[in-house]
Design brief:
- Belongs to the transglycosylase Slt family.
- Keywords: Signal.
- The chain has 291 residues and is mostly helical.
- The protein is built from 13 helices and 2 strands.
- The protein has a two-stranded antiparallel ribbon with strand order 1-2.
- The chain is elongated.
- The protein starts with a helix and ends with a strand.
Amino acid sequence: MEKMLSIALSVAMVIAVAIVVAPSSRAHASAQQAAQSYTPQKAGNALKSRSRSVKKRRVARRTGGGCQTLSGSTLEQKASAYGQPIHNAARQHGVSQDLIKAVITIESCFKSKARGTSGEKGLMQLMPGTARRFNVNDGYNAWQNINGGARYLGVLLAHYDGNTRRAIAAYNAGEGNVRKTGGIPNPAYVGKVMQAYGKFSGTQDQAATFKKQVVRPLQVEPASSSKVLPWADLHTVKAASPAAAGHYTVRAGDTVYQVMRVTGVAVPELIRLNQLPAPHGIKVGQVLRLR
């Protein structure tokens, strides 16, 4: 009996030692394998990867970072979630879809629940006063927010005679802080919006950055011009010398800005001659006075 007990005790001790030693052996083997696989080339690659990551962060800080630095395809993908309200607001208020998308890019990066430190809400970060001005009851509702923001952009474009950069500056800084001539107070903000606008509209060479402190008023060119204007996503309406006739008949897709481009009559003059109430919408078949 004592012999059997001694044998059982010996077996138990062997098992215990095996349990203790086995993990240690496996850990040692793993460590040895890792050490063998570690080479100077791998170390160099890891260092280069970290260096590239640091450089990207530095570039992002230097260029302002932000949503506008994303690729055009990524931005389009983000915007696609709000395609219908953007399309509707653009047509209703005569503002380029690409411009609306660009402002949303900088204001919220397409986050419908975004909230600013001063009470700004939603995709286009409408201030409480702006929301009340354009009858936006729910700033987090994408349809209401985009409609209110696009309507405000339309008003600003009319106020600044179609000058997109000044309208963008006023959207951010307020109409009272942006004059029709001279410098603007927020060129960095305008540059970011124009960078995003360039990616949406495919005109990055013309609108990638905005570094000048002074903005020249927009020069109206004939309809045949190849220059891309902010409302370039709206079709060009062909008219036979409407200015000479003294009137213009509105066609499908027209806005006051499109009429200005075709006729050469400035937006404020069109509004005054035809007594167009804000937000200055026009209807198909409507006959506009040009003088």
